[in-house]
Amino acid sequence: HSVFFKPEDSEDLYVGVTDFVYKFDMDHLQFIHEPCRNVVTVIEKFQDNLLVCAANRLKPQCWVLSPSGNIQRKGRGISPSIYSQNSLSLFADGDLYAAAPLEVDGSLLQFRRLAGNRNNVWMHDSWVSEPTFISASLVKRADDPDNEKIYFFFRERNSYHNPEADPWISRVARVCKVDEGGPKGFFQNKWTSFLKSRLICGFPEESLYFNHLQDIYVVHAENWHETRVYALFTSSWNFTAVCVYSIGMIEKIFENSSFRGYDQDIPRPRPGTCVKDSKSLPWGTISIVRDHPEMTNWVHSIHHTAPFYISSHNYTKIVVDTVQAADQREYNILLLATGKSLLFDSHCFST
């Protein structure tokens, strides 16, 4: 088991393994910390320092590594108790977001804001069913920072129990960066802006879908509408597909779709709207987020009628690299990895 962290503003690469965190640069290998025979599960930049978390023999523990010394903090909700359990973490604008089970048995798994400059906030228990969290990303809006959102991607148990239906559904969800939770006594410290929608990859005209989301890679653009999400899916017939989405298209669903299971007038402000003082939101708006956070409409890929790429290889990881070619044009290259080896596809494309 290993975890990797590459700071955007540095050429260093941090690698967390059992017992050690290593720091790599161009010239040498440096041992920087030994968390007492632990399996390292999280490495993140945290307020100009390095946050390292480990399973710690079923009692998750974190360390903030700084030049002035190492500070211990509780790791519950940031690191899983067992390294193989599902988890993810994101440090964005001074805040730490994470998804890790609160219990040793893997239960109470949800997406939370756990540390930083804002209030700790978590999810309502009924919003997800047996989730597997894949990725999370902050999409910046230079001209409208108060409307910036954290998008996270996961798959969950299908609540529709038709024997012919796939048991899993892939999702995109988002919360507002400025969300501080609801008013005291009603939804206090719970997301007031959480919404989710089904992420579709396949052949809609044939009702044939790749439903098992495996990995996500986000290519940010100066115009947030053009930020691209490259999603890797597998299917029940052992094929892999890549579908591409834009944040602009995703936001149109969240801003315009009706709410599944809700057929009355939609209150104002619309549920999911980012407001500076979420604690002042009216009960009608919060109650829809609480009881009907799923969008009726689905998020389709920018190619809509078919996946962008299909392969018979069993890929599990995706990275997209932007390069400038001899013709001075920029091309995106898909890097796809299986569980055993890294395979480079010769197909490159311009966007």
UniProtKB/TrEMBL annotation:
GO MF term list: chemorepellent activity; integrin binding; semaphorin receptor binding
All residue ranges annotated as the Sema domain in the record: 1-351
PROSITE patterns listed in its UniProt record: SEMA
UniProt superkingdom: Eukaryota
Record key words, sorted: Glycoprotein
A single GO cellular-component term on record: external side of plasma membrane
InterPro entries documented for this protein: Semap_dom, Semap_dom_sf, Semaphorin, WD40/YVTN_repeat-like_dom_sf
One Gene Ontology biological process: semaphorin-plexin signaling pathway
Name of the protein this chain belongs to: Semaphorin 7A (JohnMiltonHagen blood group)
Species of the source: Oryzias sinensis (Chinese medaka)
Taxonomic classification: Eukaryota, Metazoa, Chordata, Craniata, Vertebrata
